[in-house]
Amino acid sequence: MTTHAVNDTSVLLGRSIKHVTRSLDTIITVTIMPIAFLLLFRYVFGGAIQAGTDNYVNYLMPGILLIAIASGVSYTGFRLFNDMRNGIFERFNSMPIARSSVLWGHVLTSLVSNGISAVVIVGTGLIIGFRSSAGVLAWLAVTGILALFTLALTWLAVLAGLTASTPDGASAFSYPLVFLPFVSSAFVPTATMPGPVRAFAENQPVTSIVDSIRALLDRQPVGGDIWIALAWCAGVCVVAYALALIAYRRRIS
User: Fold this and answer.
1) Taking 60 as the threshold, does the pLDDT of residue 1 lie above it?
2) How far is it, in rounded angstroms, from Cα 209 to Cα 203?
3) Where is mean pLDDT largest: 16-20, 73-77, 212-216, 246-250?
4) Please, are residues 124 and 34 in contact by the beta-carbon 8 Å criterion?
5) 80: burial class by Cβ within 10 Å (0-12, 13-18, 19+)?
6) What is the 3-state secondary structure (H, E, C) of the chain?
7) Quick one: pLDDT at residue 212?
8) Around Cβ 213, how many Cβ atoms within 10 Å?
9) Nearest one of 126, 114, 207 to 153, comparing CA atoms
10) Parent domain of 40
11) Phi, psi of 82 (to 5 degrees)
């Protein structure tokens, strides 16, 4: 980005952040609901689930973080759709601002809000027993994976927001994404699942992402999972970004 584009993006980022902080339902969805899932699995289901670990909170944490991100990005599509419906896009396009900043303002807002949500969730986890022996580099790797995962889903949200015909359609795409961690290794080992479900769980992207984060936090060998996780995230991000740009150009042409 040029200096002009960076300045424009920072202004639009501030605008979007204000919208987030003034929206109670957004705060509830991206923070309180994942914490509710964390407490539910820890204190209600945890005693009946055999995950092969003495600290089930540690086992839960990666999946809860991914659910929080999948829930949070839906508001990016919703806010983008509202900007188009309310004529904000036309106003921005009539102003001397970088066109790319309109989308990047929303994308960076998603990164910031989901990052804050992740910190709050980890903090809650520490209160109820989450512990990690990971060093600084491992935490940086976890942060990088979560950031790339957020970017990938956010660009999907941008694409949904640009192509949807209703507000519900702009955010409904995230429902299957929220469901994916439940059919993965996020809450139970995939070995406990019936054959077809296990095959799906072991070959969908969330499992490799969860297993990589869990291994990093527990200071265990990551193996090839991390490369599969990064490939999934990067691939989705690149494809969604390219399609979002095409949809955006059609909208403003």
Assistant:
1) no
2) 11
3) 212-216
4) no
5) buried
6) CCHHHHHHHHHHHHHHHHHHHCCHHHHHHHHHHHHHHHHHHHHHHHHHCCCCCCCHHHHHHHHHHHHHHHHHCHHHHHHHHHHHHCCHHHHHHCCCCCHHHHHHHHHHHHHHHHHHHHHHHHHHHHHCCCCCCCCHHHHHHHHHHHHHHHHHHHHHHHHHHHHCCCHHHHHHCHHHHHHHHHHCCCCCCHHHCCHHHHHHHHCCHHHHHHHHHHHHHCCCCCCCHHHHHHHHHHHHHHHHHHHHHHHHHHHHC
7) 94
8) 27
9) 114
10) 3-252
11) -65, -40
Q: How confident is the model at residue 46 (pLDDT cuts 50, 70, 90)?
A: low
The overall average pLDDT reported for the chain is: 84
Residue range 227-244, pLDDT digits in tens: 999 999 999 999 999 999
Task: Encode burial over 131-170: b for 16+ CB neighbours within 10 A, e otherwise.
Answer: ebebeeebeebbeebbbbbbbbbbbbbbbbbbbbeeeeeb
Give how many domains the chain has, as a whole number: 1
Once rounded to an integer, what is the mean pLDDT over residues 190-197? 89
The one-letter amino acid code at 33 reads: M
